Amino acid sequence: MESFLGEKTKLIFDRHQDSLDEISIIIPSKRASVYIRNEFLKCFDKPFFSPEILTINEWIDQHTEKEIISQTEQLFILFQAHLKIEQSNADDFNQFLKWGKTILTDFDEIDRYLIEPRLIFRDLRNIKEIENWSFDSEEPLSKSQQKFLGLWDQLPIYYEEFNALLEEENMTYQGKAYADFLENLPHNTQLKKHYYFLGFNALSTTEKRIMHWLYREKKADIFFDHDSFYLDNPEHEAGYFYHKLCKEWLWKVEAPAYFDNLPKHIQSIETSSQVSQAKIAGSVLNDLVEDGADMSKTAVVLADETLLIPLLRSLPDSIEKANITMGYPIRFSHLQSLVDLVFEIQFHFVKFRSDKIYHKSLLKIVNHPFLRPFLNQDSSVHDFEQTIIEHNRIFIEVRDIVKTFPSLQKMISMFTEWKNPSREGFACFNAIIEQLYGLFRQDEKSHQLDLEILFHFSKAYKKIERITDKYPYDYDLKSFKRLFYQFWQSESLSFLGNPIDGLQLMGILESRNLDFENLLILGLNEGNLPKTNFPNSLIPRDLKLNHQLPVEEDRQAIFAHHFYRLLLRSKRLFFTYNSNTDALNSGEKSRYLIQLEKEIDFEKVHQFENFTFMADDRAANISNSRYHLEESAALKMDSRLAGGFSPSALNKLISCPLDFYYRYILDLKEMQEVEEKVESSTFGTNIHDVLEDILKENFLEKDLPLSILPLKTAKRTAEKLLREKYLQDFSASDIKYGQNKLKFDVSVRFIQDFLDKQMEEIKYNPDPIYLVNLEETLRAEYEWEIQGQKRKIVLEGKVDRIDRINNHYRIIDYKSGKCDSSKVALGAKILDDDRMHDFMHHKDKGYARQLLMYGLMFRQTYPDIKHFTVGIISMVNISSWIQNVHKTKSQAPFIDDELLDKFEEELQLKIEEIYSKDFLFEHNPKSLYCDYCQR
Fold first, then answer.
1. What contacts 862, CB < 8 A, 6 or more positions away?
2. Calpha distance 224→249 (Å, rounded)
3. Residues 574, 519: Cα–Cα separation, whole Å
4. Confidence tier at 620 by pLDDT (50, 70, 90)
5. pTM value?
6. What does the alpha-carbon distance between residue 125 and residue 155 come to, in Å, rounded to a whole number?
7. Residue pLDDT, tens place only, 250-296
8. Within 13 Å of residue 394, how many CA atoms lie on the same side as its CB?
9. Which class for 302: exposed (0-12), middle (13-18), buried (19 or more C-beta within 10 A)?
10. Is 533 left (phi over 0), alpha (psi -120 to 50) or beta?
C-alpha cells in the first residue's frame, strides 16, 4: 500500500511538474520533508528545482518581519511591564517568575485562537470575584484578596503594555505572529502561487482561517490523513478535530479504509522493567531481519524517550543501518547530573550556612564520569574517599580539595558561594566547559559525543547569558537555576544519517505523516501516550470551553490521532509497556492499547496477541540462599575459631546462621561511610571511653580504691571529656543541632548518672572496691574433636571492667542499651536435661550467653580465682546497677564450675553442629537485624 506522502507527492507532481518552484508544501513536522523530496526523486529522471517545503512555524516566521523571541526573553519584557504597571507594589523578579510564564502561555493561546483579550479577561475577573465572595460573610475582602483580584483587573493592561514594549523593540511572539499573518494575508504580495497543506490534524483558529482563506481563494489544497476505522465513530477521539472541522467548513469527504484493508498482526507485550522493553525490541528486530523484512520500512517509536540509550545498546548486529530521527536530549546525558551537582553545592552553602563542601556532594563530584579522568591526573580519587571516611569529615575545606586535586583550581568557582548567581554562575560554567573541552580534545575519538554535548550546552546557556546581561535584574539562586535550566534542557543532539534508508528510531511527534510496514512502539504506558503534563493556565476549564480554547481532552485527542494514524498502513505491530509500579511509573498500559483491542475487527483477519515477558532473576531473592559448610568454607571456619570466637559471633550464629556465614566465614565487611549522625556504636563507644579514662586515671594507674571525691570532680568535667571524644570524629557544629545534639546530651546524662550510682555504691559498701583491669581481653583455648578431627577453639572477648571487693571478683560489661533481669536469668533448672540447649538457642538470652562466655574466658585466664560474678550495667536502667547472670534471685550470683562446664559442653555441641553435613546456613525469618540477608 502506498504511503500518504507518496500518494500526495505524485498528485502534486502531476499538477505542477513544470512549475514546482512556484508552490509551497506546508507540513506539521520537519522530518516529513526528506520523505517528500525522495518521492519527487522517484518521479523525475533529471535534475529539477524542488518545491519549497516548510513546517507551518517556518512558513509563518518567513512572513514575519519582526523578531519572534523565545518565551524566556518574553519573561523579561513582561517583567518590565509588571514594574511599570505595579510600580511600588510590584513583586521582585523571583516572585514574578512563579506566575509570569503562565501569563505568557495564556497570551500566546489567546492570540492563536483570536480571542478578544478584554472579553476573556473580564470573564476571568468575574469568576475570581465570585470565588472570593461568600454568602455567609458580611466582611469586606482582605488586602491580600483585593490584591489577588487586582491581578485579574490588570490583565488587559498587562496584555497591552507587554505588546507595546515588544512593538518598541520590533519583536513579537509566536501566537501574535500567527494572528498578524492572518490579518495581513489578503495583502501579502510574497505568497506562492499555490500551497499544499499535508497531514495536519489539530488546528488553532488562526491556522484554520489561514488555510481556509487560501482554500477559498483557490490558492491551496488541504489533505488530511484519516481513516474510516475511527472516523465512522463520531465519538472516537482520534477523529475529533476532523469532525469538528468538517462541520465548520461544510466539508463532506468520504473516508478511506486503510486500516481494515491491510490485515495486521499485533502483539502487546507486558514487561516488568524499562530496560526489558529495549531488550524485547532488539529480539523482535532480529526476528524481522531473519524474516527478510525491509528495515527502511521499519520504525521503532519511543513513547518514552528515556528508552533511547537502552535501545541503542540492544540493537542486534543484524541491523546494518539505523537512523535516529528524534534527537538525543542532552538532559539525558551525564552533563545533567554534573549541572545538578554544581547547583546542589550552591544550595548547600545556604542550607548549612557554611563555606565548606558537604562530603556527599564532593564525593559525587570527584566520581563524576566527566571529572574522574580529569582528577586522576592529580591524585587517587579512591585514596581521597578513604581519607574522608577514616577521618569522618562531613564538611571539607575548599583548600583541602584544591590541595589534593590541583586541576580543580581552574574550576574553583564551583566550590565558592555565588553572591551574584547570574554573574558568578555563568563564570563557573564557562570555566567548567573550558576545562572539560580541553580534556576531551586530548582524546577526541573517544569523546566525540561528549564534545557535541558540551557544544550544545554552551550554545544554549550563552543565549540566556546574553539575555540576563541585557536585563540585569536581581536574581536569587532559585530563579537563576529556573532560568538556566529553561534554555539548555530543551537542547537535543541531531544525529547524522539517512532518514529514508535503514531502521528508523523516532519519537511520537517525529512520526507524523510517516508510514511504516513494521512498527514497534515502546513505553506505551498511560502518561507517556497520551501525555499528561499539560501547561499551567490562569484560565479555568469552563471559561476555556466557553471561548473554545483547548482543554485537556483536546490535547489527548491530538495524541489519539498520532497513535491511530501511525497504525493505518502497518502490517506488523509490536507494543511494549512497563507494568511495574514505582514512583515514576503507574504501571498502567496506555488507554489507546486497551481501546484498540476492544475496537479491532477480528473478522478483517486482524490478529491481536497479548504476551508477558518475565525476567529469570534467580539471584534476586537472597533470603532463599542456603549454604552447607563445604571444604573451602570449613577451612575459613577453622581459621575463625582458632583466631578468636567472640560472644557477638555466637549470638549472630544463634540469631541468623546465614548472616553469620556472610559476616564471619565469607568475611564480608560493612560498607564504610562518613558518619553524619551519631550511630549507636559511636554513642556507646564514647560513653565507654570517657568512663574508662575517668576510672583509669584516678584509680587504676594509682592503684587506689574507688572513692567519691575524684568521681565528683569527674562528674563536673564529664561534658568536657565527652565533647573531646566527639570532636575526634565530628566538628563542633555537627553536635550542636538536631539528633546529634540530643544524643550528645543523653550521653552526658548517662555518664553523670553512672558516676552518681558508683558513688552511691562506694558510700554504702563497707569494703573498698579495687579495679583489677579495664578493657581487658580474655581468652580461653580448647582442643575439641569435631567430626573426627581435632580443632583448636579460642574464645576471645574484651570485657569493660574487672574489679574486686575483698576476694569477690566482678566481671562487668557496660551496655548503652536496655537490659533487665529477665535477659540475664538462667532459671533454677538450667542444669537439667535439655535446659541448657534451650537456653543456648533462646532469642532473648543473648546477654546471658555473652556473660557465660566471659565466665569461661575468665576461669581459664584466672584459674586461681574461685569467687566471681559476671554482670551488665545498663545505662538506660542504671538504677538496677549491676545485673548479674543468675539462676534465681534468691541464690547468690556466683558462677560455679558446674554451670560453666554445662555451658561449655553445649557450646561444643553447637560448634559441632555447624560442621555437620545436615546443617544449613540459612536465614532465620524471626531475626530482625540481618545486614546481609536484607532484613
1. 809, 868
2. 14
3. 6
4. very low
5. 0.69
6. 9
7. 887 788 999 988 999 999 999 988 889 999 999 999 999 999 999 99
8. 17
9. buried
10. beta
